[in-house]
Write the C-alpha cells for this entry.
Amino acid sequence: MAQEEQVQISDLFDLKETAAGDYLKGFTYPWEALGGIHDLILEIGKSLPEDRYDRIGEDVWIARSAHVFESAYIHGACIIGEDTEVRHGAFIRGDALVGNGCVVGNSVELKNVIIFNHCEVPHYNYVGDSILGFHAHMGAGSITSNIKADRKNIVVKGQKSYVTGRRKIGAILGDWAEIGCNAVLNPGTVVGRHAQIYPTTCVRGVIPSWTIVKQDGSCKEKQEM
C-alpha cells in the first residue's frame, strides 16, 4: 500500500487508554518502552487509590472490581485493572500492566507486557515482551514469539529496517488489531490499527493499519466500518 508506514507509538495507540500513557509519550517506537515496564508498574502502584485497589503480596495490585479466579497465578510486578477478568489457570509471570475491562483467559501466560484497556487475550495465548493496544484481540491459541532461534538482536522489518538493539521483542498490536486463532506473531511483529490476521497465519515485520493478512501471506485492504 502507498500509505506511510505506521510504526511509531503515536501511530498505533490511543494513550488515554492505558495507565502507561505518560510513560509511552517519552518514546518514539514502542519496543523502546519494553525495558522499563517493571519500574513503571512499581511507580504507578504507589499512586493507586487504596479504596479501589488491594495490594496482594509483593508488588501486585489488583482492582477490587476485577474478577481473579483462585487458580490464577500472579507474580509481581503486576497491576490488574478495574473490571478485568483473570480466568482459570492464567499464569502471569511478572512485569504485566493489565488495563481496565480486559480479559486474561484460561492458560494464558503473560510476561513483560503493557495491555491497554478492553484488550482480550482469552484462550491459550502466550504474550511476552509485547504491547497490546486498546480493544486488541488475540484469538484462541495465537501467540507471540519473542526471541529469534539464533538469539540475535531483533530488527523490525517494514518499508525500512528498524534496529532495535533488543534480543527479546514479541508483538506490538495497534488499537483494534484482530489476531486469528492459532496465528503466530514472529519476533518484532508490528500490527497496525484495525489490521486483521487470519487464523493459522504466521506473520513477521510491519503489517499496515487497515490491512487483512491471509494464510498464504497475501494482503488486502480492510474496509473501514
